[in-house]
Design a protein that fits this description.
about 45% strand, globular, about 120 residues, alpha+beta, single chain, 1 helix
């Protein structure tokens, strides 16, 4: 009885901590570093070679989460367009307009930042 209760509590606690460590609260672009702040922790993305582009249409339709967290208007992780098969990394706080950029073969969608002038 006690073992199953403790195991249940640990599973719930682990799930809560996982969700809190993947929900973005703010994005800060400073120089060539983008820092994504989560409720618990942060991630730094090297923006060297980032190419800012207009947000593609397929990023808003037929999107499913294949890894990460979504809660309300906050999204973080890997997302896939089921029709075009394009993969995206989302770090959306729900604040401000969405900004799209590509680094190598990775496609990012973020918000809460002011991008440098669009470079086509």
């Amino acid at each position: 009885m006690w073992i199953s209760t403790i195991a249940g509590v640990l599973i719930v606690l682990g799930t809560v901590l996982l969700v809190l460590s993947t929900l973005p609260t703010s994005n800060k672009l400073e120089g060539n570093k983008l820092t994504v702040h989560f409720i618990i922790g942060k991630k730094v993305i090297d923006m060297t070679g980032a190419k800012f582009l207009p947000v593609p249409e397929d990023v808003s339709r037929n999107i499913i989460r294949v890894g990460g967290t979504s809660l309300g208007n906050k999204h973080s992780g890997n997302f896939l367009n089921t029709k075009t098969k394009n993969k995206y990394l989302f770090y959306l706080t729900g604040k401000g307009p969405k900004v799209y950029f590509v680094i190598g073969d990775k496609k990012y969608l973020v918000d809460d930042i002011t991008p440098p002038a669009m470079n086509n």
